[in-house]
Write a structure and sequence with these properties.
The complex is a heterotetramer, with 2 copies of chain A and 2 copies of chain B. Chain A is built from 6 helices and 13 strands. In chain A, the strands form 3 sheets. A 7-stranded parallel sheet of chain A has the order 4-3-2-1-8-11-13. Chain A is globular, with a radius of gyration of 18 Å. Helix content of chain B is about 20%, strand content about 25%. Chain B contains 5 helices and 13 strands. In chain B, the strands form 2 sheets. A 10-stranded mixed sheet of chain B has the order 4-3-2-1-5-8-10-11-12-13. Chain B starts with a helix and ends in a 10-residue tail after the last strand. The chains are: A alpha/beta, B alpha/beta. The interface between A and B is large, with 59 and 59 residues.
């Protein structure tokens, strides 16, 4: 079994109008090589499910600036001013979800659960149009599953079967997004033979992954570089 | 009082609520400052909702790692005993009631414990991030904020006017003027910060405050 | 035909349904036997619902490990590329449609694809284990069983009489006599096993079978 | 932070009539030291949530034989003949759940989700008394969360903070059960200092665990020893 593919082959799996799930938190742990290739390809009218919308000049920001995105399903889009302008201009629709609800909706999509109840957002604008139901004296909202046509995720290493491990907080939404699309592409920093990743440590089992790609270049931009002083206590 | 000293006063008082062994989530801004005032001998594990339990210090210059950030997207480090997990697991922790205290800022809080801190109608909405999950799921929610807005208006109201982040979710409010607790009877004035009188707090507060004299002064 | 040779015939035919790169769950009994007949050059990853993707051979004597078993509680080994996960993740894989084929035994199957394989009223109920999740969630469910019960009665019915494991879940039925497929039009006789005639299959089957002559014989 | 405790202290946290969540699949990965201590203590009238009911003379079988169990919530109890007799005699109630539903109900209990929908069991005896609902043309059952007063889990190693790692398929239900009880005790084969487990590899973060105990003795019974011949292909 060898799921190692090319970035060109990955691009052929995503069509205009597709729903694309993407890993990443801010620009940490984003599939940056796949995003750059998607920008070059110019695939349009995308609905992107991702916690954030990138920043100007990086991540999903590239696709937004290039006019490829029709709708964002996210929890926080505050870092991207270009998106703000496009929302005001009516060019992009934004659906905001509480972060935990977003994560759980995608997990549900990957786990065969069409809907679930959560206490998050009861009595807030998030509850509008949603069923509210009381369990054991507390109100909950019904939230429905999210699935994608394609998922782009970033992992640290993959084996050729498609098993994935991540690195620190670059894990974030990636393992969740990898479960919930019809075609899942993982870009990684290193590809090893099957058996070279410890079976105990694999975070995403290969069953979820359709194609593995070695990223050509990792910029790994830092959004907020904060340092402590050598003498100070810091956080 | 300068804004910086107000922020410090609030953060110091918030940190006194932490107990040894607590798992705590600190929001962006004043709440994050509370990490600097954790009492001696009190080990608190900080949760970062992007997928880390056990946030460490900020890194030294040159030791930043783009793969290691907190929920505010700042570079951080880990502590011995840290662990990483994905976003769904991170919010299973939050929603499942495993976080002892969430400290978070507010635009408005009211005497029923309702909280508004994510949108102002007519302004660009940045998103609620993890705030709604944190306030709905944590065992205890502490609001850390300045008592009044830039215009001097009370941020502690009889009833929130902005779109809500959560209903009846707030337990305690800590400002540079006072500490207040949401009780079944209403909003109780627990303590007054040093330098302020009960009367001053009452005048600066729109909400109905329950006052049981003598109101103690916050210990420094 | 001996029971052993019937079982082998069924398992061999089932294994021909596997394609390279498939993720497959094999139930206890005849389904497990299919692992021995996976075609050359066809790499199939076996799922064990207790938390293993990539079941290997049974261990050599002395190499058993109590911490490494399959869903039938038998000692097993792993293959290069195996991974371990917890029960909730294991069934997220199953329920989420990530298993290409589940092969499972049956007490009764009917022409609508309904399946009964877990309880007989009046007898002690052992439990459904993971069977209901596997048949509800897998992309394709293949029933591997003997065509008739110990009393000679057809196990392939017009309508199941026992309490169900799943409704409209079965795709294909493989017995020692025939291969049948559940279609919107009804149960189609796809192939007859070597040594049997279409007529014999029809006589041994309670369900209405759609026969499109000539019915091919299963390749050996 | 040091959550290392004694088995005696753990026993004080479980009362007559409690609901007890237990890890394990068959007798693989069961908290055998905690079970033996619970048998000695004689705590009665327990509701036990566990995939299986042990075997005669091992695991939950010990508690069943000792008359301590009022109800089992499981998916498969076929290995325990004593339980069968007690069920027929009306001494023990059994609630059978599909295995994936059981796992997800407990996960939901730990994740603050009071109920969810699943396709599993629609049209079967499992559906009796449950709400059925159609999403996108398919029927689903509503299943509710399970929580326990206490959870007993077995891990391979713990650090003193309570972070846990498991060993092979002895992981099974343990990480799930560890999320969903008011008091969670993990028994392990080895306890190390905080920081000695790799942060990337921790399966159960310490936040879920209240007490860690080093097991005194591990029998690790094998239910079905199956070997291949040196010459044969095996499974």
């Amino acid at each position: 079994m060898n799921k190692v593919g090319t970035i060109e082959a990955a691009m052929e799996r995503i069509q205009d109008g597709a729903t694309l799930l993407m890993g990443g938190f801010g620009v940490c742990g984003i599939p940056e090589n796949l995003v750059r290739a998607l920008q070059q390809r110019g695939t349009k009218n995308l609905t992107i499910v991702s916690n954030n919308a990138g920043v100007e000049g990086a991540g999903i920001g590239l696709l937004i600036e290039n006019g490829q995105v029709r709708k964002m399903i996210s929890s926080y889009i505050g870092e991207n001013k270009v998106l703000e302008q496009k929302v005001i201009a009516g060019e992009i629709e934004v659906e905001l979800n509480p972060q935990g609800t977003l994560a759980e909706r995608v997990r549900a999509g990957g786990a065969g659960i069409p809907a679930f109840f959560t206490p998050t957002g009861v009595g807030t604008p998030v509850a509008e149009g949603k069923e509210t139901r009381n369990f054991n004296g507390r109100d909950y909202l019904m939230e429905t599953a999210i699935r994608g046509d394609v998922a782009f995720v970033k992992a640290y290493k993959a084996d050729k079967h498609g098993n994935l491990v991540y690195r620190m907080t670059a894990r974030n939404f990636n393992p969740v997004m990898a479960t919930a699309a019809d075609f899942v592409v993982a870009e990684v920093e290193e590809i090893v033979e099957a058996g070279q990743l410890d079976a105990e440590q694999i975070v995403t089992p290969s069953v979820f992954v359709d194609m593995v790609i070695k990223g050509e270049r990792y910029d790994k931009r830092i959004e907020k570089r904060v340092n402590r002083q050598k003498s100070g206590a810091g956080i | 009082m300068t804004s910086a000293s107000k922020r410090e006063l609030i953060a110091r008082r918030v940190a006194r609520e932490f107990k040894d062994g607590f798992y705590v989530n600190l929001g962006i801004g004043i709440p994050t400052l509370a990490a600097s005032y954790i009492p001696e001998g009190c080990e608190v594990i900080l949760h970062s909702e992007n997928g880390l339990m056990g946030i460490g210090d900020y890194p030294l210059e040159g030791e930043e790692d783009a793969d290691l950030i907190n929920a505010g997207k700042e570079t951080v480090t880990t502590i011995p005993g840290s662990s990483f997990f994905n976003a769904a697991e991170s919010f299973a922790i939050v929603r499942g009631g495993h976080i002892d205290i969430t400290v978070i800022g507010a635009m408005e809080v009211d005497q029923h414990g309702d909280l508004a801190n994510w949108m102002i109608p007519g302004k660009m909405i940045k998103g609620m991030g993890g705030a709604m999950d944190l306030v709905a799921g944590s065992k205890r929610v502490i609001i850390a904020m300045q008592h009044t807005g830039p215009d001097g208006a009370s941020k502690i109201l009889k009833k929130c006017t902005l779109p809500l982040t959560g209903v009846k979710v707030v337990d305690t409010i800590v400002t540079e003027m006072a500490v207040m607790k949401v009780t079944p009877e209403g909003l109780l004035l627990l303590e007054v910060q040093p330098g302020f009188t009960t009367q001053q707090v009452l005048e600066a507060t729109d909400a109905d405050l329950i006052v049981k004299e003598p109101v103690p002064t916050c210990p420094l």
